[in-house]
Structures are given as structure tokens and as C-alpha cells.
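Trying the structure run again after the queue cleared.
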Amino acid sequence: MPAPMWRRKINITSLPKRHLQAFLDRPRLDYRSWKTLSLDKLEARHARLPADIPSWDKLHQDQKVCALIGARQPRFAFFNDPGTGKTMLSLTLARYHRRIGNLQRVLVLVPNKSNCVEWGDEVTKHYPKTKFVSLTGSSRNKWMQLEANPKALITVTTYAGFTRMASDKKGKTLTPNLARVKKLAQTFQGLVLDESSEVKGHDSLIFRICRKLSKTSHMVLVLSGTPFGRDPTALWAQMNLVDGGETLGETLGLFRGIFFKTSVNYFGGFQHRFIQKKRSLIYDMLANRSIRYPAKEADLPKVVPIIKRIELSEEARDWYERATGELRAAAGDFTRVKNTFLRMRQLSSGFVGLPADEDGRKAKVEFAENPKLEQLLGIVQSIPLEYPVIMVHEFIYSGERICQQLEEQRIPFVYLRGGVKDEAASIRKFKTGRVTRLVINHKAGGFGLNLQNAAYMLFYESPVSSIIRKQVEARFIRRYSAWDRVFRYDLLAINTVDERIREFHTEGDDLFKAILEGRARI
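Done. C-alpha cells:
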């Protein structure tokens, strides 16, 4: 009996095999060999540069390797773990290339406004005389700030804010404004993409705009601790901005022709599945223009994982079982699958949101009993106030309920999510210990924050993506932690998607994506 259409492997590439083989046979460099260089050899290579690298004597050996590579090859990807000093490395390379006359201004793109604060703090800490500007407010205000600071070496703004700066809005759609993009390309000679997975994919607006800037930039640095999970498709866009396709192919079709098998999915479209046995090959190719340094285990605090399982209330369980049936019946209907999966996640946290409200801003139904919220509050109350605690959530409504409960118990806290007026003040209150309870929406604070003062992280709701989950954990599992041991709690509603999401994280996978591709059932 023939396999169902959605399982059949098909060949949709029109590229001849000789072209694929020519791509595989390209000569490539391997920068991994630099990691074996002794300090003496690093010093000798430094001495041969046209100018000294700033702060050379303050750099760790791994940072010296990266700085030397970036000095000689200014278009490069640093996939080093969080906490290994990628921000300082970028600032050092920006100053070096300005010193030798290669650039005057560098644009740094970050995921969230809170990351702009972090970059400002790092400039003040390492290079206090370096001129720095963080673009804030409306697009018009950002352009005014940009023009008012022509001598700023470092300009920082968010990916979303930069996209709006460079685009026109037609209804709900943004389209690139070619004149503005050209002006930005003329203004900046360096581009730093912090947490570069935010570039999304080859068809995203931010990728298309950044590609224009990349073509005229002398320095392009891609920074990420987790550039991809099980599916390396996101790597193609990131590396294309570095080298225009030299490493992973000039087109996505060429990349997929080497590393993927294609089949028809439930919805009649194509799904591309990475061939896992080629993982080592992709690492070999990446070594042409990237390097990775994991954080040394000895430098990190020991993590104590704790799982707290919670029974749903009877009312919530009834709703959940009906939603499970709806999910199974929705196979083949992307919108129904997506909305039902979203509702199941919300039910595990004690509420049902409005249809298709991905952020969970308002509750359509809230149950009288919420065992998960009660468990969270009990854990927080049991932790002495001198130990800083981070509470992570996804849905806006969940964050508001957590804050409400903390207020009722008169527990001082700060809240970090999109829309908070003074994020810098909230972050500094927590970092300095003035307040030791932080409620954080992972979408606002999952990337780029240095919160190694925290001793506890409590996941009220975990991101579905394994990449984002690792990034969130890396906020407090970092080099120079204030603690020898840190504690990571997961609050999981029994027999719900909570548990399945964590199971898939252990494999570096995404449960929702697996459901869509037919690899998982609930």
C-alpha cells in the first residue's frame, strides 16, 4: 500500500547533482584550528597586526582568539555561549577597525529595549570614552537621534524598531523604503547582529533590509549562543549576511538540496526535514566563517533542576480534554491546530484567552482554582528575600495575575515585559539587589540580559522553542554568577502540553512544529 501523500519524499530541487557536488567541493577555511594556538602564538599574531587590539591584555584566551580572527576577518559569526563576552568582543573589534580606518560608525541590532540598556552598560564598563547612542521612541525620533549623533561609534536599536525606521507602512504591511535603506547603508560601515536568530528567515523583512546593509559594510558580526536547534534552516539567513553565501550557499535551495529531505505536509505544502547524519558536515562548513566557544563548565554555577507537577482543577481538566479532542480533529487545518494548541497551553495555566490571542492579553474564562499559580506563590514565599528570584511567563495575562498575587502578599517585585516604561530602572533595581523578585516575559527578556545575580529561575510557562528556552536559562546560568549553585524550577500541569514541551526540549525540538509535521500527537 503506498505511503500517504504527506509522507512521500519528493525531489523538488532543480539543481543538477554536479552543482551540489561543486558546492560540497568548494575550498573552505577551518578557524577551529585557532582554538589550539598557544598564548605565545596568539601574541605573535597580535604583533603582526597593523595596530594593537584595544584592551588586549584584559582579554581571556578565548576572547583573544576571537579578537584576532575578527581583526583579520571582520565578517564573521561568533556562536559562543552566553556569558563568554560577545558584547565586549564586538565593542573591541569596532574600536580596532575604526583605529585602522576601516569604519566610523557601527549599527548594533538587539531583540528588545532591555538589551539596549545592557549594551549601554557594557560600553560604560569597558570603554567609557566611546560615544554611544541608543535609538528610542518613534521612527521619526530615531532618525533625529541618529542625525544628532554623527560621531557615535556605536548605535543600538531593536530589530523591530530598525525595521520600522527603514520601512513604509501600507495598511498593516511594512515595505522597505529604498531611500531610507540607502541612507542607513551610507551611514554605517559596520553591522552587529546580536542574538542573530532574530533575523528569522530568508523571506523576513528584517533579513532583506539587513542584506542591503551587509553588502556595503566592512564589518558584519553575527552573535548567538544558540543559532539553531534540530533544524538549521535559520543558519542560512544568518550566514548569508556574513558572507553572501560563501559558506552555506548563495541560495536557500542549494542549502536545502544538500542537507534536507522534502515531503508534503498535512496542509498540502512542502516540509523540509534536516538529515541528522549530516550534522557534522554542517559544522565542518560553518568553520569557514564561524567559531564556537562553549562556556567552561568550571566557570558556570551548578544547576539544580526541580520539577513541580500540578493537577489541574476539575473544571480546567474538562476544558482541556475537550481541547485535546479538537486538536486531533483539526489535523490538516493549520489555523485550527494553532489556535487549539494555544488554548491548551493557556488551560494548563488556569485560563482561556480570546481566540487567536497569541500573547494571552485577556482571559475569556478564568477558573476559580489555579493550582499552578498557588504553587508558584508558595515557592516564592519559601525562598528567603536575600536570594534573587526570576519568574518567567509567556502570556501577558499570566504575568498580570502573578504580579497581582505578589502585590496582595506585599512582596516587592519588578516586572519586565513589552510596554514597561522604564525598563532600565527595573533591571537595575533587580541587579543591585534593591528588589529581589523579577517577573519577566521571556519575549521581552529572554535574550541578551545579564542576570547572573539571580539564584532561582521559576518557569511558570516555558517557551515552546528549545532555542528560546536555552536563551532564557542562560540569563542566570552564566560565567561570574554570584552563586555556586542555582535552582531552576519547572511548574508542569500533569498530562498537559506543559510536560510534552519539556520532553521535546531535551531533544532540542519544538513540540508545536512536530505536531504540524505529523511527528507528534497529543
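Residues 1-13 have pLDDT under 50 and may be disordered. Worth checking whether this holds up in the mutant runs.
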